[in-house]
What does this fold into?
Amino acid sequence: MIKKIGALLVVVLALSGLASATTKEFSMGHFYLTPQIGFASWGGSIPFGVNAEYAITDNIGVGGTVMAQFWSDTWGSVSWITVFAEANYHFIKLRADKLDLYAGAGLGYGIYSVSYASGFITGGTGSSGLILQPIVGARYYFSPKMAGSLRITTPFLGGFTGFGAAVGVTFLLK
It folds into this structure.
C-alpha cells in the first residue's frame, strides 16, 4: 500500500512538473492586469496607472493603459492623464523560460492641464491631444499567475513627448 501511494505521488509530481514546464507565459484567452508606476523624462512627480491586456491569439494582445501624473510648485500645478488603446505582438517562440517579451503600439489621448498661482502667468491649458507611441516590454513570471513587468515607451506624435518607462506587477486573471 505504501509503495502504491509513493508511486502515485511520484507520478503526480512528475506530471505537475511537466505541466509547469510546458505552460505558456502568454496565451490566447487570458486577461492580464498590471498596476504600475512610471519613470518619465519630464514632470515633477511619479506617474502611476494600470495596463490591461487580453490575448486574442497566442501572439497578439489588445488592451489599454491609463496613466496619471500630478505635480505642483510655487507657480501652480499640472496634471497629465493619458488613455491608450494598444496592440502588442508577443515573441513566444523565443523559448525564454518565464519571460514574455513583446513590442507594439498605442494610440491614445493625453489630457494636459495647468493651473497658475496668483501673480504668475495666466491662461492656457497646455497641449492635450492624440498621441501615437511605440511600446517594448517584458514580463518575468515569478509564478503562473504573477509577473514583474517593464514597459518602455516614447511618444513620437502629439501631446507631451519624452522618454518613459513603467514597472509593475502583472496578474493573470483568466
